[in-house]
Sequence to fold (296 residues):
Amino acid sequence: MSGLSRSAALRVKLGLAAPALHAASAALWEPSGRARRYVAYLYAMHALIRASVPLMEHAARRCAQLAPGDPVAGPLGRYLAQHIEEERGHDEWLLADLAAAGADPAAARGALGPPVVAGLAGAQHYWIEHHHPVALLGYVRVLEGNAPAPWLADRLAARTGLPAAAFRTVRDHADLDTGHLAALDDLLDELPLTPAQEVAVAVSALHTADGVARLFLQLAATPGGSG
Amino acid sequence: MTDTTGPQDTLARLQAAGFDLNAFTDDQREVLGALTPHELGVLVDIKGRLDETGPEVQAHADIAGGALF
Fold:
């Protein structure tokens, strides 16, 4: 066993995935067709983010079923209850951004959603139901750990020509997610995880990083559209 | 899936997939040497995504980085 904390060990594993995520985001924001691709990104992120609260609610229900005999379920359930409220409504922010960008929010509400997004969220439902709800922390770790830089919203606004109001979700998450990430790392280090549960968190995180890289590369290759 | 490989085999598989492990500390290499087959398999897939993009996209990027929430 290494001398690293659990959160530090996960950071090492995700460090191997980071160059692929960085390259996929570079492809996503390539200059050609950037405004159209930003709108496609908003549609895709809405498809992903509308699954966040239902995923956490699923995990919280499983925690309630497992507690009190499961020492992880109690503290995990309390974390989820708080984080659900922090994340609630953020899919609505994306709909407002779409409207500000001149796109149709109703198309996002009714969209099937890209298969890769269904694979990202669907894998989490599987692990929550059939393994342990703690796996969801790997998914949350990747989403919170790859928050937008503080300059991203302004730079995208300047280079797409879209109105500043179309970037609220990107702008506000640059501030929000720093605190969320620290709280999540603390939780990972404090939970009495078994080695198998620690692996579940890592596999979930790596699977999420892979899916997000796939999603960004697909958006880069197929600009526009409502999914 | 049962992990029957040792740490050196696991590190060798990462390197064979194209990961450069030279900059990692001993503690970090210990973490990577203990990767399970599931973890290793997903990492190899991820390396394939990186190879898909090609160096020209990354070289000419003026915006990159996190865009998740």
User: Anything to note?
Assistant: Chain B touches chain A through 34 residues (CB under 8 Å). The helical segments of chain B are 7-16, 26-33, 37-59. Chain B has three helices and no strands. Chain B has a mean pLDDT of 87.
